[in-house]
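Worked example

This section walks through a single chain of length 502. The input is the sequence exactly as stored; nothing has been trimmed or padded.
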Amino acid sequence: MSAVLRLTDVVKTFPGVRALDGVHLEVEAGEVHCLLGQNGAGKSTLIKVLAGVHHADSGEILWQGEPFTPASPQAAMRAGIATIYQELDLVDDLNVAENVFLGHEPSRFGFTRRGSSFVKTRDVLQKLGHPEIPPRRPVRQLPSAGKQIVSMARALSHDAKLIVMDEPSAVLAHDEVANLFRIIRELTANGIAVVYISHRLAEIREIGDRVTVLKDGRTTAAGLPARTPTRELVSNMTGRSFEYVFPPRLSTDAEAEPLLRVEHLSRAGEFADVSLTVRPGEIVGIAGLVGSGRSELLETIYGARRADHGTVTLDGHPVTGVGAAVRHGMGMAPEERKSQALLLDEPVFKNMTLASFTGFARAGFTAAGDERAAARRTADALELRPRDVERPARTLSGGNQQKVVVGRWLLGHTRLLLLDEPTRGVDVGARAELYQVIHDLAGDGVGVLLVSSEVPEVLGLADRVLVMREGRMIREAPAGELDEDAVLDLVMAGSLMEGEAA
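Given that input, the structure is written out below as tokens.
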């Protein structure tokens, strides 16, 4: 096969930042070429250069053998390069067909042919294996997986020869990821090239052909086989060994009185009869697929959802709402940190002091100096990068945004921290730092209850693991007694006999 896309020594500089510092990349027709790198490695800048959002300062880009400098995203699409961003750029108030053909609507004599767009959209959705999605349905009514299919349909409507997918599986359930991979294989079988960006190394091995790794805006490895050992990939991304990603597990007092007690908690249609405990300094992990009720359970424990039955107590105090949860020392870092946990346009220090704001009030006025000083101490403790607490939260990488959310609860003297997908969209290096933060919290006596889609993360972090399936807890065991295969078998097949359930 020959390279349809070739980048040589591509450089892109922003004020004070050299985002791309001589990137090399070759993508062949009909292959899945995976792009790896930490947050801040240059992946986002690179795909925006390909998409015509940014323009390279120097270097050479060849597309199908010809120099390529798209003046705009529309020009890139017309040339046959389509990008599906992690934050999907669909218009919720338009229907499926209007989104698919947005900007290049079928027309005749200057008039848009809506009937033609519906027919063509139905044909594209049929090719993608999703004829059940109605072309006339408003996009806002679709689930996350459906919206992603619409984005792929838009790419195919432009007759794309290269599709860039940025973290496409981040919001998908296991069966939806399998369908995504089926679609990708069909695309590549027809000669379409795919650049696939993911932090999940298991996915890369399953779907990828070759891998290119970026670090600090440079290509550190190009065209490696997708089966390259994990240690080598992680070393190219971070310069550190994979063995040190998870800190050593701390010993906990198994006889200590539980800090959190959840008893027979139920919420119709989401989960039923859930009981669990978390002791001071203990990390308890919940493993389960998307849709198992795990996130809804955490939100109900926190008081953001009202339970139909059961009780939640924190150190003997009933938790009946978010106010009571925070007042008694409970904090939560939700899965959707950008929309649910952060004020993106506010500075880091304002985000960090949200849960302890009254502690900085003096005679009815905010002691801004004290507020900033406390945030700086917390930023230092968490090794926030950059340390500038005046910087808007929006400008931080995913891993550092998550540190800001955790820092908020550190300042609030939290005794129990709920973490929902704490490392979603976070690179390997930043994950290791977050894992250390979580273990340090436990070492200081904070109880941690975390949910993660990644079984190795649950097993590597937790002292005790709860396995959840279809709204019920079906197994509880020390993490050392479980392995990845056993947990996946439980959450996917539910093979545990009824009599063995915890």
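What to look for: The CA atoms of residues 359 and 444 lie 22 Å apart.
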